[in-house]
Amino acid sequence: MILTEDRLQGLLDASLAELPPRAADFAVVLEGSIAEGFGNPSSDIDFLLIGRGDEDLPTMPSLLFVDGRRVEIRTRSVRQLTDQFRTLEKQAKRPGTLCEDLLNRCQRLLHSHPLRGHDLVDEVKELMPRERLSRIAGDWWAHRARQSLRHAVALLRLGRTDEAVDWNRAALVQTVKAWAADRGETYLEPKWLSLQLDRAGRPDVRDRYGELHSTTPAPGDPDAARAHLLACLAFAAGLGLTGVAADPERLTVERAAGVTTWQTGERVHVIRRRREVFALGDRAGAVWRGLVPGRSLPRALAAAERTGGTAPGPLLAAFWRYGLIRLAWKGGGTVTASLPLAAPPGPVTPPPSTAQPPLSVAGAAVSGPDAVDLVPLPADRFAAATMALVWSNVVVENALEDLTGALERGQWPVAELTARRAVHAALRGLFSSYGVNPLPADCDLVHRMDLLPPATEPIRTRAGHLLRRTIDSPGRGEAALADLHAFVTLVRDTAGADAFPSCFDSADAWRATLELGHDWLRIGAHLDAELPIEEARDLLAGHGTRPHRSGRHPAPGRNGR
């Protein structure tokens, strides 16, 4: 060790003096890199205090600065350590789910240097033989090496050559750590790997590892990346790693749990875990619709190229990265690569899309044809806002029709109220397109326009004028109707509803409206989202069919709301 026994005892005495007094029956060990024979003058001093009782001692360490060194003091009872090793033995049956922190804690204790209470230290170290720990650690590292190499095979086939090379390097570290663990070098932290390989006494392994790890294929060169992968696979096989081959046919594209697909018009939405919504651009949507679960990765790419155009690999890579699909290795389960002492494996969540407004009646806005954009709303609010957007436009159409009828009959008070209802409904649609849900009260809408981007200021100004309009003559009525039509057009252009059907003009337009609403209702029902009004559920769920009326075509309804 880089510190003498006297120096360690002095640091321990000084550290304990800063802590509350403890019972006499406890042991102390030095853990970590210095106890392993590594370390340098900047390395922490890691003390573990072991109590003979069965109490629950705190997990968090005490951090001290003693004589120029950073000292961490942790505590554990014999009962806690016994539970720790029992749990490790149980988890070791499935290396892929074994907790890294648990393995690390057990390893540090078994390879620790005793400072006090040697008999108690010997007692707890007998909870697991070091040879057994070596086997567990070796299997743990081998599982990760295998997954990283499979990950690299997939990335290479998907055209992500530089990413594949990085995972080759990660797999090299994990392969060599597995090999070293079988020889008793179980310390988890990879930064001391070079010293572990020196100590393992196999310069050929050390040198070949160093050569492969330092190899830098030309960026974007698939042939060089494949050659590097083949060399890494051959090296890993020579060290005893099994279950990997440079054969992408071993990879299959599979469904991911908790992922559902919903289409509105031409827009494809993919909902992950009922919480996040991804909106796919036109090409991304075509590739997504062409995926068939169970196909090999090469066959899936070939099919995607036929439906979505050339080079679909990056799109499938994005679907995989975001957890919208999973890749499986035939006979080896889901491919899940991970790195030690890093972020846990799992789907990535990208930054939310910045498209404005984020919603339209046809679907969420996207940034381009290859987009796999995260909608900046939780899934239930996305569904509620889009249903409110569709329904508000239905109300606008109803109000415009009612206004026309009121003007024909000279019903001026009715016309005024109906015109205001159309303005409020249009504003509800505008707010909904920006994801505002629940909505402000109608009378507050024009005053809450500060919630929306400054570009909507002309809409606020025109809405204020329309809401203050008086209709008491045919001339004023016709002017108000023309201005209202222009206002609705402006709002719909802004809110992505410019193609909304004139749903009270004909049975065909009404049917088109119901089909559009039904698409959103299905998403809302799946997510238990709140409907804009309860009548919408029966109306849209039944595609507008009236239960008490027969006929070939459902007639437009007028509920005055």
From TrEMBL:
InterPro entries: NT_sf, Polymerase_NTP_transf_dom. This is Nucleotidyltransferase domain-containing protein. It comes from Streptomyces kebangsaanensis. Residues 21-65 form the Polymerase nucleotidyl transferase domain. Residues 542-561 are annotated as: Disordered.
